Fold this protein.
Amino acid sequence: MTKPAEAGVRTGDKVSSETHTMEELLEIQRAAFVRDGIPDAKTRIDRINRLQALLLDNSDEICEALDADFGTRPRELSIAADVAGCMIDLTHQRRSVEKWMKETNVAKLQGLLGYKQRLRHDPLGVVGIMGPWNFPLQLTVVPAGSAFAAGNRVLMRPSSVTARTTEVIAKHAPDYFSIEELAIITPKHGGGSDFAKLKVDHMFFTGSPEVGASVAAEAGKNLVPVTLELGGKNPAIVDPDASVADAAKFLADARMVNGGQVCLCPDYVFVPESKVGEFTDKVIERWTENFPTILPNRQYTSTINEKNYERIVGLIDDAVELGATKRQVVPAGEQLPDAEARKIPPTLLTGVKAGMKIEEDEVFGPVLTVYPYRDLGEAIDKINSAGHPLTLYWYGKDNANLARVADNTRSGSISGNDFALHLLSHGLPFGGVGRSGMGNYHGHFGFETFSHARAVTVSTMPISFAELMSAPFTPRDVKLTDSQMSMFRRFLKGSIRKNAKR
């Protein structure tokens, strides 16, 4: 990895983003984009290289900042998610950008008829990226890499909740980038709502549906296109023929990633009615094994702040008060939940019903709700009664039951037998649908999100469409139009007959 001075890229005087307002930074980047034109593959690759170096060179300081922001967050998780976790997609972007940015000939044979058409993949200009607090670097750096691959400049706003982590990135970014290329927006520049008002060329947001709606509304006032990567209550279904013990182990682990503070964590699970008791026992057994201690355990991720701690505890208490049954893993000698450490014990809820707040709210914490089902249709109906989730978990074989679930539900993705595997694949899109988001990224999908597919047509035909479509219309034009209508009617009748024979 190389820093800009070593890579031969002009970076100015290592100016901090905080010496300018957000609006000034936008104008600086836009002017640079116009001045320099569309960057070549070498420039794009170099920018992605430096983005990787920014994380890798400062990984220890990043992990310390993340631990301080959360209260406790294991270094292994921070490395895996917010440093190493970015490298797979960034490396793929870097290796593929030269191929992706080439013009595409759409129909070569038409050139023989005097009509050529091709497709350019042009950058949009300046991209604004707003990140969340749960993975403050992965969910800003990876889309930034896609934006660089597509040839854009980037204004990046990590979450103000993880302020120490943002400070680390803002401090070191000028060592790798000119503010003309990448500018880090901090709380000193203003709030997220201020950032959403910027007249960038594309706004990319990851966070809650409620805030996402506000971002989309502000961007819409300026006709700025948006990509929204949102959350949601992700359901899981255990197939009747699946191993309950294995399903419980998987879902217990998946629920506790980052203390349950992941937009892809399973929120609630459907288990065959006759196996609910075994399933809940196995989940509690797995959590007890994984967390022999919690309060002094540096590997047990704290809830990010007091507000979220109180919200999650409130959801549990409300459910219990209205008749739900609570099972928690509380190690001997510990008093949990603990407000000072912001640690909530792994919690399993059964008997949850309509009217309980946890039925509606995304938990985003260490709580798993279990529902019994007799027929798969019950689970499908329950899932469809809520907003479309970001992902739907399935535990069992790739069988007719899974096909039934896929055909009769909507979600951003389906994850079978493991946690968020599609995150690791640059061949699959990452994104939601409906309430869980719009648009997607990762791999080539990210490049397309931050590019404009620009059509180019060149005609050398002796006949002009402009002449054919403007007055005066001659008998020849009438004959041509009637011939077209007759042809289309024949095609339609043929299609109807063909379809009827199937």
